[in-house]
């Protein structure tokens, strides 16, 4: 398989006489691929039914002549002004029901049927026109779907009412699910349904979660429609999407829908130049996109400069490219080619400066292109068969956000803790949805799965009973699928599988329960409690915000909270497998220790051992890829002598990696 390198290009921003100059510079840099067409629907269809594709035909022909492949984005957002005029239901309405003018991009309700009529009509015309073009490499399913603004319009309310009727069947069932007996909120009919936020208040947790699910499903369904259109009109042509499923104010349940619209997983990859926790937050989203697709990642947008900062230290972006190659990337397309003169991103810097002159970013991408050309002769893109699955829960992220006073470690922070742990251990894993797991994993990690449905609980039960090993962390299985707190012993639906009852909890706003010496104040004023955990042979110290009181039924104590007379980790033998439960919230240090205890027993492959700050993988037999993520030169001991592919040097016993550098060592 090939590796692809290039940039995002916006020819409609630049005069036609500039196009050939830009393409020549891309070719000189060694670019193989360019992404075109996004964010400019009205450049193709300036008014309803009026099409002006001729200018873009010229662009496509120029790239074909240059031998540069095109990922053609099907540009359906932002919607042109004329679409907003014809489709009032696609307009965004605020929480008070007031119309909001489309001042910026992504201010349309893409679940509106009238909007979808015009969007899918345009998509069909675009796909038919270019599906056989020699420059076409793949299609993109629009840009950053999932970003934008929720709409509280009457149009959306009517659709929400219909969605609930389809889901619950009767208003009595809806009232039961929403605990409407509380505070006299019983609905006489589905027509009385309202959106669950207004200017003054947010609705009850059960109803509010259903509204988030309704918005999510509308977005996922639209992506599926675009994918189905491509399959019909251009069968066999690859496609991808840099959707924004994780967007905090909107987003959608990617793992629920991805099997129905993903060909190649895609992402926009942006990180601060300094390697810190923000990287692991981004990597957490990245791994979710990979899910269990078994395909390599297409980074349809990738860091060049950033907002207000033209470029970082030379090599910092190259380091991120290497890290993505470690994590199954195949395509790297810089955002953006040239710094834009106008619009909201005029100071988001590209490979070329505002005056069209190449910058340091261009030189760095030129080096990346040379590296990728060498690396593709070996086992890239790297496609491992992970032995570890990490469960993700879209619902839990919203439940935790709604009741943040209860679940003080945010769900995304919890996932990032696991990501950081496994990345630092050089260990591959897949992110899974417990509703439909494909792979066969030796270890399943379930961090902060606050909402536990019957279907997911049954998968866990079957997995453990048939010999699997699961680790679940504190906070988990607190509420059921309707977002009602379990009235049965926690972890709900799974108390017998884990052999425990969660009898209560302590946290750091209950300071009277722990000694002054145990309090740890961090720089931002946050207080944690320092706990000592004793295993059978060794002990460790962690700082936590929260820990639970575990009553052991059939479970045994695997580790203990010293001085607390409490169980820190329980283990229950259930069927042929084992279920571990940690009394604390998701904690990187504790999970690292526990996985280390279990690795030999589970037969997990030993990950490559590297100095701190170096990430590595054995990508194939006799092929070892190392990345120095730090600003310091690092020496790495080699088990066997080998040849460096990028430096073209021979190495006997050690490899010295410069800051931000990487190398593929091939041994005899």
Describe the structure.
The protein is of the alpha/beta class and 668 residues long. The strands form six sheets. Strands 11, 12, 13, 14, 16, 17, 18, 20, 21 and 22 form a ten-stranded mixed sheet that branches. It has an eight-stranded parallel beta barrel with strand order 1-2-3-6-7-8-9-10, surrounded by four helices. Strand 23 (614-620) and strand 24 form a beta hairpin. Helix 1 (16-28) packs parallel to helix 3. The mean pLDDT is 96.
- Overall 3D shape: globular
What's the mean pLDDT score? 96
Beta-strand fraction estimate? 15-25%
Helix count?
A: 17
What is the number of strand segments?
A: 29
Give the distance, in angstroms, between the N- and C-terminal Cα atoms: 23 Å
Return residue spans where pLDDT drops below 50 for at least 5 consecutive residues.
none
Please estimate the helix content.
Answer: 25-40%
Structural class: alpha/beta
Radius of gyration: 26 Å
Q: Sketch the major β-sheet.
A: 10 strands, mixed
């Amino acid at each position: 398989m090939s590796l692809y390198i290039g940039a995002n290009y916006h020819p409609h921003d630049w005069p036609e006489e500039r196009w050939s100059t830009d393409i020549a510079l891309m070719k000189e840099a060694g670019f193989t691929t360019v992404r075109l067409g996004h964010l400019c629907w009205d450049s193709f269809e300036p008014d309803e039914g009026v099409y002006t594709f001729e200018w873009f035909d010229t662009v496509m022909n120029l790239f074909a002549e240059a031998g540069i492949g095109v990922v053609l984005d099907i540009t359906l957002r932002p919607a042109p002004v004329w679409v907003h005029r014809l489709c009032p239901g696609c307009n965004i309405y605020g929480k008070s029901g007031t119309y909001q003018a489309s001042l910026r991009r992504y201010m349309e309700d893409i679940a509106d049927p009238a909007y979808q009529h015009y969007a899918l009509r345009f998509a069909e015309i675009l796909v038919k026109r270019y599906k056989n073009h020699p420059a076409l490499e793949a299609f993109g399913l629009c840009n950053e779907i999932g970003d934008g603004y929720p709409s509280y319009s009457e149009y959306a309310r009517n659709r929400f009412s219909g969605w609930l009727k389809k889901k619950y069947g009767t208003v009595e069932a809806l009232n039961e699910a929403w605990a409407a007996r509380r505070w006299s909120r019983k609905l006489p009919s589905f027509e009385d349904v309202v959106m669950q936020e207004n200017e003054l208040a947010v609705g009850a947790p059960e109803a509010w979660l259903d509204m988030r699910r309704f918005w999510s499903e509308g977005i996922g369904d639209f992506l599926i429609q675009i994918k189905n259109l491509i399959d019909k009109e251009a069968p066999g042509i690859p496609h991808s999407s840099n959707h924004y499923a994780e967007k905090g104010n909107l987003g959608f349940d990617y793992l629920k829908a991805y099997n129905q619209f993903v060909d190649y997983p895609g992402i926009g990859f942006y990180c601060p130049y300094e390697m810190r926790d923000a990287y692991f937050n981004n990597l957490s989203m990245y791994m979710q996109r990979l899910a269990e697709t078994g395909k390599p990642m297409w980074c349809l947008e990738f860091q060049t400069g950033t907002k207000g900062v033209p470029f970082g230290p030379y090599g910092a972006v190259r380091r991120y490219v290497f890290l993505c190659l470690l994590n199954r990337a195949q395509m790297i397309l810089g955002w953006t080619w040239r710094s834009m003169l106008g619009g909201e991103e005029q100071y988001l810097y590209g490979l070329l400066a505002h005056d069209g002159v190449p910058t340091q970013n261009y030189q760095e991408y030129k080096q990346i292109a040379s590296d990728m050309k060498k690396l593709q002769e070996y086992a890239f893109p790297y496609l491992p068969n992970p032995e570890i699955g990490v469960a993700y829960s879209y619902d839990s992220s919203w439940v935790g956000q709604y009741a943040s006073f209860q679940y003080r470690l945010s769900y995304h922070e919890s996932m990032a803790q696991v990501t950081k742990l496994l990345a630092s251990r050089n260990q591959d894993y897949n992110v899974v949805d417990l509703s439909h797991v494909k792979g066969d994993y030796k270890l399943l990690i379930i961090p902060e799965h606050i909402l536990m449905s019957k279907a997911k609980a049954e998968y866990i039960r079957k997995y453990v009973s048939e010999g699997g090993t699961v680790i679940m962390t504190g906070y988990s299985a607190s509420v059921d699928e309707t977002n009602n707190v379990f009235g049965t012993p926690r972890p709900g639906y799974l108390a017998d599988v884990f052999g425990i009852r969660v009898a209560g909890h302590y946290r750091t706003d209950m300071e009277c329960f722990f000694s002054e010496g145990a309090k740890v104040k961090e720089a931002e004023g946050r207080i944690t409690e320092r706990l000592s955990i004793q295993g059978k042979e060794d002990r460790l110290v962690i700082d936590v915000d929260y820990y639970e009181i575990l009553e052991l039924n059939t479970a045994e104590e695997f580790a203990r909270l010293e001085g607390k007379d409490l169980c820190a980790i329980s283990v229950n033998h259930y069927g042929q497998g084992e279920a571990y439960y940690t009394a604390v919230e998701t904690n990187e240090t504790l999970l690292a220790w526990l996985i280390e205890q279990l690795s030999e027993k589970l037969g997990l492959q030993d990950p490559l051992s590297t100095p701190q700050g170096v990430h590595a993988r054995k990508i194939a037999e006799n092929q070892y890829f190392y990345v120095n993520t730090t600003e310091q030169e690092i020496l790495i001991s080699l088990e066997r002598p080998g040849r460096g592919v990028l430096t073209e040097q021979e190495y006997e016993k050690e490899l010295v990696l410069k800051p931000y550098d990487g190398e593929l060592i091939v041994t005899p």
